[in-house]
Amino acid sequence: MLEFIFSEKNTQSMITILSLFLVYLIFTRISKRIIQIKSGLKTKDLKKHKTITSLVNNIAKYFLIVLGIIMVLSIHGFNTSSLIASLGVASAVFALAFQDTVKDLFTGIFIILEDQYNIGDTVKINDFKGEVISVGLRTTVLRSITGENCFITNRNINSVINYSKNKALAVVNVDVSYDTDLDKVEKVLNNLFVRLESEIPEIIGKMTIDGIDDLGESGITFRVTAEVKPTTNFIVERKLRKEIKKEFDKHNIEIPFKQVVIHNDWL
Questions:
Q1: φ/ψ bin of 175: left (φ > 0), alpha (ψ from -120 to 50), beta (otherwise)
Q2: Given a cut of 50, is residue 60 above it in pLDDT?
Q3: What is the DSSP letter of 119?
Q4: Are the CB atoms for 204 and 148 separated by under 8 Å?
Q5: What pLDDT score does 4 carry?
Q6: Contacts of 45 (CB under 8 A, 6+ apart)
Q7: Cα distances (Å, whole numbers) of residue 182 to 30, 177, 179, 218, 236
Q8: What is the pTM of this model?
Q9: 211 beta partners
């Protein structure tokens, strides 16, 4: 039994498999090292580099598996030349038998070439929104804000919304009472904006008062907007509401609550 396990052919096969595994480890290590070296790239370029590296690593893994099988068969005396020559026919059969897998493969390649999204982007694919954590030959993996991972086969990707491509817009509606001095409100907000533009790192553009958005039942609504980094609009909006409330309290500007007027005609 031991003589069979440690026969010359089996030993060569194990050495071949270990060698190919070592090659794959070295290849992935080099890929990670390249990413570290290129960490000074712009965020967009770095994301794309990571995505391409992930896809190339997947291709290398499957290529080395096939190469390992052919080399092991050759060691054990199989005619691999005819096997390789028949790969053309086998490929056609494979394409028919595994057409869904082939679709996944080509869709994954086109996703990269068309730069639809990269690792680290926040996207909505079909009905699931999350951060792209992996782009493979068969699947794209998203992680939602609450931690769930969604594995989507590439061929089933029907629509993509990428929230990380362009700047986002933070929008906050601010209510004041009808008896408030509107010019005072605008002055207070504009002075606050000057400070917040330098204090909140996610803000990358000018903060503006877009004007009066509504004359509501209990107050007047101002709309405030700010250009912010992609996917940070909700974070900025929360910070703005807090800072605006503090500033209004400091200047005695009332944020109204809903009021109901009751007419008592029978008195």
A1: beta
A2: yes
A3: T
A4: no
A5: 44
A6: 38
A7: 61, 10, 9, 15, 24
A8: 0.53
A9: 223
